[in-house]
């Protein structure tokens, strides 16, 4: 979102905004200490921790099956609760377990093809699936912002990309295989549409997905454009851009008056590879501005416009799997809600206004996307188009703001939480948001009557104590 040259200039001379000198440099580089890590072992058990560091546990067993038969045998006798983890990119406590922790890393790759549909093992990481599909001239219709997750993980949490006509990843799944808590194998597809609709987004509560049949598209080149403009201009043009571009998203940047826009469109133009990701440099500029000028919104905004407002647009042309996802080396914690499309941008404006009024410590941009509807029972996009708003906090910063001040705004406007992102909802609150919630709970009880797949967090989520 910012050229390397501009980032270097900003990082090297930004302190001059308040006069320069050693003291200013010290302020600009001040850094909170890293949050304390839990012990690496406890009672002889080894620590498991998620990507941002806030979720962890000490599993009694760690299981790494190599095939479906081995998985079924393991699950039937494993210590409960049995939980499956991929890359640990969920911020909610879906993964922690004192029982058996399962990884499907040994069950990855494309197993076969049925026409243009790929049969993909659930442990496959998205970053590996892209080139594997491209080798056959095919591609996923869309990709999320990060491609480190496993296929099973993105289905379990309804992970999505952006595009008014493009569904979340699970929307392209036409069939899947599920191993239940007692080791039975269930094929969910056109012959069992109810099970498929439930299992495509199931939080790992119905069983372990081992493979999916995934609809694919031709592997086309996309043109990626990134540009910075005034936030109000982006708000005014966003709806038209979602209607015009194959993929469109933007980042509202509090305390700058700016927004970074990203579009992707199919093209036959020759390849123009994407350069190194500049997001970390962009974040460093924003963090330095917070540290230097957090006492004055006006000065902070003026400095941001001077440093970032004139950044020239960036363009790249390449296969979609190389462009749609981004490296995220800077760790954070995140809350994301999905709002009805008709109130999407109104809610965003309210969130930005609140942050700029109350929380000068915030420096992370706010990610804004639009997603097409689908029919999965627990999909946040079930029943109509939704727009997502993702608010982030640096992993060293206090993220209680997200629950105390931001989440109430989302809930007041009918928002549904991203299953892998921070939220406080459970039980009756979720039942009010999902028409098929009761049907899902009934199927869950049928497939796992002993609640062997439920950790304490999921029991609370489903209102089971």
UniProtKB/TrEMBL annotation:
Domain of life: Bacteria
Keywords tagged on the record: FAD, Flavoprotein, Oxidoreductase
Gene3D superfamilies reported for this sequence: 3.30.465.10, 3.30.70.2520, Uridine Diphospho-n-acetylenolpyruvylglucosamine Reductase, domain 2, Vanillyl-alcohol Oxidase, Chain A, domain 4
SUPFAM superfamilies: FAD-binding/transporter-associated domain-like
FAD-binding PCMH-type domain boundaries: 55-219
PROSITE patterns: FAD_PCMH
GO CC, one annotated term: membrane
Gene Ontology molecular function: D-arabinono-1,4-lactone oxidase activity; FAD binding
A Pfam family hit: FAD_binding_4
PANTHER family in UniProt: D-ARABINONO-1,4-LACTONE OXIDASE, L-GULONOLACTONE OXIDASE
Protein name: Oxidoreductase
Species of provenance: Caulobacter mirabilis
């Amino acid at each position: 979102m910012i050229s390397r040259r501009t980032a270097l200039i900003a990082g090297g001379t930004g302190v001059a905004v308040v006069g320069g000198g050693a003291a200013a440099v010290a302020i600009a580089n001040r850094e909170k200490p890293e949050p304390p890590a839990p012990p690496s072992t406890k009672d002889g058990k080894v620590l498991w921790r998620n990507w941002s560091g806030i979720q962890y546990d000490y599993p009694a067993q760690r299981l790494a099956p190599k095939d479906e038969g081995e998985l079924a045998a393991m699950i039937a006798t494993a210590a409960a609760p049995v939980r499956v983890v991929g890359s640990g990119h969920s911020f909610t406590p879906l993964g922690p377990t004192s029982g058996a922790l399962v990884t499907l890393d040994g069950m990855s790759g494309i197993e076969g093809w049925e026409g243009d549909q790929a049969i993909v093992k659930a442990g496959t990481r998205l970053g590996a699936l892209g080139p594997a599909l491209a080798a056959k001239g095919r591609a996923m219709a869309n990709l999320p912002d990060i491609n480190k997750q496993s296929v099973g993980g993105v289905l379990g949490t309804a992970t999505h990309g952006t595009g008014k006509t493009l569904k979340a990843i699970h929307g392209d799944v036409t069939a899947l295989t599920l191993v239940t808590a007692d080791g039975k194998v269930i094929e969910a597809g056109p012959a069992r549409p109810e099970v498929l609709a439930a299992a495509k987004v199931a939080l790992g509560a119905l069983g372990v997905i081992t493979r999916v049949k995934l609809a694919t598209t031709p592997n086309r080149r996309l043109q990626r454009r990134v540009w910075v403009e005034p936030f109000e201009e982006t708000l005014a043009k966003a709806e038209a851009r979602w209607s015009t571009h194959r993929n469109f998203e933007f980042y509202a940047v509090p305390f700058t008056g700016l927004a970074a826009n990203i579009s992707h469109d199919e093209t036959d133009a020759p390849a123009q590879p994407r350069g190194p990701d500049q997001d970390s440099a962009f974040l460093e500029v924003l963090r330095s501005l917070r540290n230097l000028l957090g006492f004055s919104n006006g000065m902070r905004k003026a400095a941001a416009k001077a440093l970032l407002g004139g950044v020239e647009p960036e363009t790249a042309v390449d296969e979609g799997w190389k462009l749609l996802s981004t490296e995220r080396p800077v760790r954070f914690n995140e809350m994301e809600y999905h709002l009805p499309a008709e109130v999407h941008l109104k809610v965003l404006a309210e969130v930005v206004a609140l942050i700029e009024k109350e929380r000068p410590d915030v420096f992370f941009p706010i990610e804004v996307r639009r997603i097409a509807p689908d029919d999965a029972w627990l999909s946040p996009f079930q029943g109509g188009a939704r727009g997502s708003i993702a608010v982030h906090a640096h992993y060293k910063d206090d993220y209680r703001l997200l629950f105390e001040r931001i989440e109430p705004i989302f809930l007041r406007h009918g928002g549904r939480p991203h299953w892998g992102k921070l939220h406080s909802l459970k039980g009756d609150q979720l039942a009010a948001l999902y028409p098929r919630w009761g049907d899902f709970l009934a199927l869950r009880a049928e497939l796992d009557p002993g609640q062997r797949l439920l950790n304490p967090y999921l029991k609370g989520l489903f209102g089971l104590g």
